[in-house]
Amino acid sequence: MIGTPEIILIVLVLLLLFGGKKIPELMKGMGKGVRSFKDGMNGVLDDEPAADKKEDKKKDE
Q: What is the rounded average pLDDT of the residues 34-59?
């Protein structure tokens, strides 16, 4: 589990590496990446039942 001191250390390192102006851009990009990943996972999960139905139809024939 990450505690408060670790989070503060991570934020300070990010500020030193990227500067204050780049951080919002990085977070925006990271948010888009996470959203894209979730959408992709939901698409995979939605496709699984359809694949199961196709296999069931083949078995019935």
A: 72
